[in-house]
Amino acid sequence: MNPPPGRVGLHRSLTPYVWVMPAVVLYFVFKLAPLIGGVYLALLRWDGIEPATFVGLDNFVQIFHDKLIASALMNNIKFAIGTVVGKTVLSLLLALLLNQGIRGRGFYRTALFTPVVISMVVVGLLWSWIYNPQFGLLNDLLRLVGMENLILDWLGGTKVALWSLMVVEIWKWYGFHMVIFLAGLQTIPEELYEVARIDGASRLRRLASITLPLLQPTMLINVTLALMGALNVFDIPYVMTAGGPANSTMVMALHIYIRGFRYGKFGYGTAMSYALLLFVTVVAGIQMRLMWRPDNQ
Amino acid sequence: MSAQRANSHPTTGLAKQGLRPPIWMSTRLDRWLTRIGSHLVLVLFTAFVLYPLIWMVLTSLKTTRDMMANVWGFPRTLVWENYVTAWVGARLDYALRNSVIVSVSTVVLVTCMAGLAGYAFARLRFRFATPIFLLFIFTMNAPDNIIPLYVMLSKMHLTDNLLGLVLVLAARGLPLSIFIFRAYFQSIPHELLDAAKVDGCSELSAFMRVVVPVSTPAVVTVAVLELVGSWNEFMLALILLHSPAVQTIPIAIQSFFMDYQTSWQPVFAALTIGSIPVIALYVIMQRQFIQGLTSGAIKG
Q1: How far is A49 from chain B (nearest CA, A)?
Q2: For B167, which of A30, A41, A109 is closest by C-beta distance?
Q3: What is the architecture of the domain spanning A67-296?
């Protein structure tokens, strides 16, 4: 009646592989394979139509002679610093305010989180209109409060355009980071504050010696997410400025897209993707080293 | 909360009073000012988030002249034609259908595959479990290498094709979803499964009859994550989908904007149509949305 024990054993030991197989196959083919196979593509000069020529490491050498890469990378770095600082400071402030047991906490939380669910395309186009020099909300607001001297072409000036995009990125995500900070604040034991209060520690003192140190792991998560987002940013500059004016909002992902799909430089674009991946990995590594405090885990 | 705590320590409160006589007044005033100040800041930043969205809807219903003369307020007359222009001009009938197909397929595919794999990683013992799981976790944050991805998909005849986008989105969503399912299944008590096994259930039927019915929270988390992600996805759709018949909402809106740069209101109508479905779902299921969308950052 029963199958021989050996068969059962084999059947049993293979079962788990059947369970993970669909996920592994799909992930391998559509995520890992392009990442691995692209290495070969990076060694070719190919526009996707004509026969490809093998050029060895030429594409990687060319990266160092591409002037636009330097400025695109610089823009990514500026964008990263601006948005990481903006997002963390603003979201931490709001999380601290909400965490005092304030009335309407649920409403504020839900409302502030709303932009997270909206498409970046919608957000980008909406803000393009807000920034519109003639009819936009922002300049109209400045006119209403009598600050005409601040009126600008927010997306048309080479000095200001990247900053305008940073505001949009911060606008979309500060509610998200606030929710994560709130979750972190909830893990800090109340007793610590009790003791500090009995000892007569001021509010600022409690913030500096209890809240901020114990919030370190949460801070690490928030900074990492914001940093990775900024170094790979694509949607906002694509939709709002297309990298202009005069490449002042050109970022790496957009540069790769334009080189690859507009100019048909498949090999060179792929090589740049790997360079960006390497750069992001190194930055992430440095940032983890700087912020990681094992004693707080 | 803080008032309660102050009252629970009357002695320390008195001691302080002794030091600085009118302190009870100033702390109460201080507390009141803090509260008002906090609300002011919160209201300001909430308005900063909400008003542009309200403005989007208001402007979508205005005439051009109304929009210019009356930037901030309600429309004088409701111009529903803007919605007709957007619907026809952006081919939103196609776009909505395509976005629904892409989102639903991605959610179903990821939930099934990640559910099975997550269960295997949580409950079944096999030799390469840890290496395979770590492979998912370590590579999950690597951004897609778009050019090789495009070349591969075009060789497979999966460009300009909804299936191609779904497969890529599903692959991208797997690691985090597996992680969420694994954590959830590990929290299900052993006894529940052992009972099913004693009753002679196979692993699969135990999973279907015992595990799946109690896994709604994890399924909802994964579904929300994949739904919002695939509904809003822009970069991959831009690269993979070209003809209007297969474009999703973000692509359709973007190209509509390129054609109608000068007339705002139909573009606003398109933006409104594109975001209303997600916003409506969000309003209905706030808690699940917030929980699902932050699950990558807060341990699930």
Answers
A1: 11
A2: A30
A3: Orthogonal Bundle (1.10)
On whether both B33 and B151 belong to a single domain, the answer is no
Per the domain annotation, does B185 fall within a domain? yes
Domains in chain B, number:
2
B157 and B261 in one domain? yes
Verify that B119 and B242 share a domain, yes or no: yes
In contact, B239 and B255? CB cutoff 8 Å: no
With contacts defined as CB-CB under 8 Å, which chain A residues touch B167? 26, 29-30
B133 and B28 co-located in one domain: no
Q: Are residues B213 and B257 in the same domain?
A: yes
Q: Which segments in chain B show pLDDT lower than 50?
A: 1-24, 300
Which band of pLDDT confidence, cut at 50, 70 and 90, is reported for residue A55? confident
The verdict on residue B76 lying in a domain is no
Q: Which of residues 77-106 of B touch A (CB under 8 A)?
A: none
Q: Are residues B38 and B109 in the same domain?
A: no
d(CA B250, CA A217): 35
Read off the DSSP letter of residue B261: T
* pLDDT at residue A295, as a whole number: 56
Taking an 8 Å cut-off on Cβ atoms, the answer to whether B254 and A234 are in contact is no
Q: Is B258 on the interface with A (CB under 8 A)?
A: no
pLDDT for the residue B142:
84
Q: Do A135 and B68 touch (CB under 8 A)?
A: yes
Domain locations in chain A as residue ranges: 1-40, 67-296
Residues spanned by the domain of B44: 2-50
In a domain, B106, yes or no: yes
Segment B183-231, tens digit of pLDDT: 999 998 888 777 777 777 788 888 888 888 999 999 999 999 999 999 9
For residue B168, give the amino acid letter.
V
Same domain, B44 and B102: no
Average pLDDT value for chain A: 90
- Residue B286 distance to chain A (closest CA, Å): 7
Q: What SS3 class is residue A133?
A: coil
* Per-residue confidence (pLDDT) for residue B15, from 0 to 100: 43
Residue A131 forms contact with B (CB below 8 Å): no
* B32 inside domain: yes
- CATH number at B115 reads 1.10.3720.10
Single-letter residue type at B171: A
